Amino acid sequence: MFTPKRILQVAALVVMVSAASTAFAQSQDRYGFGTPVGLQDLTKYFAIPADGAGLPPGGGTAAEGAKVFADNCAACHGDKGQGNPVKGIGGDRLLGGRGTLASDAPIKTVESYWPYATTLFDYVKRAMPFSAPGSLSDNDVYAVVAYLLSEAKIIIPTDTMNATTLPKVMMPNRDGFVPDPRPELELYH
Amino acid sequence: MKFRDDGFVIYDEESQRMADEMVMAEARHMAQRRRDEDDCACKGGMFPREPASRRGFLFAAGSAAGLAGSTVALAQKAPPGAVYYNVPADPTKEQGRPVAGDGGYGSRSQFETEVRVRFPTPNEYTSWSFTPLDKMVGNLTASGLHFERHHAGIPTIDPANHVLLVHGMVETPKKFTMADLKRFPAVTRRHFIECSGNGLTEWNKPTLKTVQGTHGLLSTSEWTGVQFATIAREVGLKDDSTWVLAEGSDAAVMTRSIPMEKMLKDALLAYGQNGEAIRPEQGYPLRLLLPGYEGNTHIKWLRRLEVSDKPFMTREETSKYTDLMANGKARQFTMEMEAKSVITFPSGDMKLPGPGFYNITGLAWSGRGQVQSVDVSVDGGQTWHPAQLNDTREPICTVRFSYPWMWDGKPAILQSRCTDGTGYIQATLKQLIAIRGSHGPFGSIYHLNAIQSWAVDATGDVTNVHA
Lengths: 189, 467
Fold this sequence. Notes:
Chain A has helices at residues 4-27, 62-72, 74-77, 117-127, 138-151; strands at 35-36, 59-61, 160-162, 177-179.
């Protein structure tokens, strides 16, 4: 029975509920799910951009890297970085191919194709060696990167690779990339 | 517009070797399939090139195979994803299997044998497998048949221990458990995923015989998850945040950089696929879904999103998924998968039993939006006819099309052509090669979205051709 008094009570309730909803909406510009993290939660993660931000301390040379390569990489990538396409292995070729990209037989390797040396550090530390990913020390990664860059004659054999020197390495194909030009306008009416 | 026909694609040593090996792998798979069909009375199916013998002694009722002593051998006979059961002579004359006797999770019929086929890379942990499009019906891909690409195997991840970190150029860096993520409002959407290497063997000559080989790096699912925009609001984005690094929790610790514009537009952090949890091969418990972007960017086993003001130049986005052109320069961040279609029936390695009616059917899709229309040609592209769309058109989703065809028994060349909502018309292979190669050779095997041709000869044999 909706007496005037009853209607007023209902109206009051509606007002209260609306006010509560508005207050809720105003205070809830975040759901509040998840847990804030600090730097200590992030220490095991990395992704190294071309400017080298996040490169760890340490360093290595080609001489040190030759042993790292022989022990950890040569089985799949060949003793000279020539690759090893046999069944069960299939390691990419790493060296050579410079100057072939515009030819009828382009060879894409770290030496000929990769635009940034930081990518090599990031990838080796991230995912290599294939049988034990992420197992190399930072010094070993710097060293094996130095070894490959030295074998590719991009740096000289005595250069040390570290957080300062690595981002400054100028890879031969640094300017070899262009933005996606698609859509190809020829394909519209 | 006229296009010269003097360009071609250069397969580097590795690509050429893999293409050659795939030809052999497909041949082995086709031979195996014929043996299976030979063994199985049930398969008359989609007009296989060599009709099954219908001996059917293994699965037939009342055969020695039904005896208890052979049960173990028969269990091994069930195709992947199926369980073998004895087949009664008349299923109306005896009770069937008890309810929930399967433990509460069903399996497919023992008579369904289609499987994914692995591309024979030298190393089976970094490889890919193709969806059997020729055997698919409808629009969605069965979760167990969704194509795969793994760079370091399939990890086994306990969702109770899985955490997504969101940090970098954000106001409040946070970690989210799977339980946290599932508390957020979720959306459910149907999208295809296509590998940018789909069709990589097909540039210079028809190479693989079946549509599974030529187009099987395409699958469609219903995906459920949280929009990245929801999470972005939760953590707050700093000014100038223009890229996001997505990182997976597999042994490749796969990383790709994604433009923030795309992330905020329609990126999903997906934990659901076709009504249940995402399959392990598809990123369980969490994957990134980027509608219309090349498959490699849909990072599986997603564990980290790092917001930045620049791309990270990861290995995948510099040395691998870039497209080397004839001038020696490579296109980078070629993310979108363009309009494409393919006839799945009739398709390569099938045989039409004789002249008469055939319902030509296939799939069409575009990474740039909705399919607008599909045309079918039965004369190698001289004349085109509108196809019927058999499903609702949705953004960045496949749609099944069909075209009723009365085959007169003469040789024919079947093609389909997709036009998307932007007005882009699926190209011929000659057009693509002319554009990409500036009429000369070029070194990118990716992003082949050309019109596919299937030739039907007078005997009904269907083969992959360039026309």
